[in-house]
Amino acid sequence: MGQFNPYKFLLIIFLLFSIAKSPSAGNERRTYIIHMDKSAMPAPFSTHHDWYMSTLSSLSSPYGISPVHLYSYKYVMDGFSAVLSQTHLDQLEKLPGHVSTFPESYGHLHTTHTPKFLGLNKHSGLWPAGKFGDDIIIGVLDTGIWPESESFNDRNMPPVPERWRGTCETGTEFNTSHCNKKLIGARKFSQGMKQYRLNVSNTDDYDSPRDYMGHGTHTSSTAAGSRVQNADYFGYAEGTATGIAPSARIAMYKVLFYSEDSDAYDAAATDVLAGMDQAIEDGVDIMSLSLGFIETPFFENPIAIGAFAALKKGIFVTCSAGNAGPHGYTMLNGAPWLTTVGAGTVDRELGAHVTLGEGDITVTGISMYPENLFVSRIPLYFGHGNRSKELCDWNSLDSQDVAGKFVFCDYDNESSVFQSETDMYGLDIAGAIFSSGDGEFQSPFDFNLPFVTVDTKDGDLVKNYILNTTNATVSVKFGITTLGTKPAPKVAYFSSRGPDRRSPWILKPDILAPGYLILAAWVPNRGFAPIRDDDYLLTDYALVSGTSMSCPHTAGVAALLKATHRDWSSAAIRSAVMTTADVTDNANGRIIDMTTAVAGTPLDFGAGHLNPNKAMDPGLVYDIEVEDYINYLCALNYTSQQIQIITGTSNFSCKYASLDLNYPSFIVILNKTNSTTSTFRRVLLNVADTASIYNAVVEAPPGMKVVVQPSTVNFPGKYTKAEFNLTVEINLEVDSVAPQSDYFGNYGFLSWNEANGTHVIRSPIVSAIASAKNP
């Protein structure tokens, strides 16, 4: 489920650039980008382009070399680019309407960053092994799709697979011609919405497969979008956008619609079930659902029910974990036959350079302001001595003090006190610098002026500069992109956490995948990013945050794995993804929680962060049969009727009821006690081509004792199996070991290491304080 804060919508591709300065001379020519104040355009000009051209022609050329106009910008910024001499530049900066000028930037072009961050390479590993997802069909249940997006072009794609039974429906602003060899199916399911009197909006949605919101377009292109060169977000760093499985096919099942009655995008359970049902009939291989319902028993949950039917057809189903973090017990989509995905960050930051005075101090902050803007020597205000003014309580500020200035807002350890945007606009401020904790403070949703957020350390530098400087000024260069930032990944603050209330005996979420500021296709049908004067800019590509974004990453990887291993079950794919996941970040430390800045736990990140290339060749998997899930449902004390609702069959027995599912993780439940012992039985399946021997390796913290029997397992050949028991003794009352929170005890890991080989699979072992809700 995505979080749609315009602060977070950024381009994920970047230009890593450096600026080379040359000695200035009157006749030396360079390329510049010139920002202009569009409100200063003289009345005689009918277009801004005409004004820009006239401005250039007015510049004198003592050396006989005239300025050369390159581009006039209409949406990305107010201004133009041109080749100028230093003499031209000196004249231009004195003209009315000139805002700022900075030199051209040069850099190395990079592809969409999440595939690279995940280690996908077109020359080796899972991408070529899985033929980039060729012949795999991903069914996406979402808000629809914008078929004209370049991310859905079908250039060089082979014919649609003959096994495909789906179609493209005709509806509002959508017809069969909008489908092609990439987008091979598009349907909408809205009857349930209409029956519940939640009428589909005629102005803010389409009663057809067409996407109005952008969410479904974004998730579809994340999973399987075609390669698109020169994708950008308002001039931020051009690059090539691509989905995780760029050769896979997409089928859209629109089940979420905007309702004016509820003023929200809703999905009726009847519609979701109809969509999943149709996807199964059409012949999809993967289902991706970036949505969820309030946690209920599985027999009342449409996604759990629909996914069980998909499971029986060999369809892999992945769902978002929810955006209710960072608190525990906030999981959605906790059924064990679903692959549930949390959201992590990537090693990229987008922001701004903040320079105080004449270069006395320079710091870098976070900003997603949608202009490639350079603000030069603007007066800087701080309401020192009045806490309300220090916090930028707009009602406490005086317009005479702040008009035309950047205001410094000290939010460290305090929440935002922003009042109405009307109060803010009346102040006529030029922009803002927020100081907030770790620098991850989120600006107000509709703050549409230039802003940057800095962490506490840099905030103190800014504050001390203001307090010790007469006529303090600031210069800010927006549009800065940095890759390779550490540590990454981190667990996104909004990502929902386990345990799952309805099914705490299965560790959830299963996996962490990129879900923070993810670039993908967007709908260009309405204003999107707020900017000055209450304007909103359009964009074809946007960065969005949420577990909605991490879910299609996992769907794309599953498509690659299914294309590589056609005989793997959905459980085998999930096992491969989980047991090869990374639990360390790029700084060689445990993955940390974005909220606390300390090491996270498997209740935050599941088995770890997705690593596609390792998942391609795990060596061993924990497989699960349909009967095993039925035994688990029996152990939940569901009635025969309730189990039949989920499984679609009455032909079963509860003789072997057990909560001990053959899952690739282990969780011990502490119910009103700090000590307990649990024994788990597991079966390993060798999916490697050769015979092998594996040895158990345990990492256990104080208060946890783990015994594996046998500690060595032998596999004579491919598809052979081996059993083992894992006994976990938890005693948090010894050695002053205390639970780390009101829902988490401690955790360790079990690894199976191949003797004289390279395969290693890892499973988390967690003790958690949880009590399941009764059916």
From TrEMBL:
Keywords: Hydrolase, Protease, Secreted, Serine protease, Signal. It comes from Hevea brasiliensis (Para rubber tree). This is Uncharacterized protein. Residues 660-766 form the Subtilisin-like protease fibronectin type-III domain. The keyword Protease applies. Belongs to the peptidase S8 family. Transmembrane segments: none annotated. Residues 133-587 form the Peptidase S8/S53 domain. It is found in: Secreted. The active site is at D142, H215, S548. Residues 31-110 form the Inhibitor I9 domain. Residues 1-25 form the signal peptide. InterPro entries: Peptidase_S8/S53_dom, Peptidase_S8/S53_dom_sf, Peptidase_S8_Ser-AS, Peptidase_S8_subtilisin-rel, Peptidases_S8_3, S8pro/Inhibitor_I9, S8pro/Inhibitor_I9_sf, SBT.
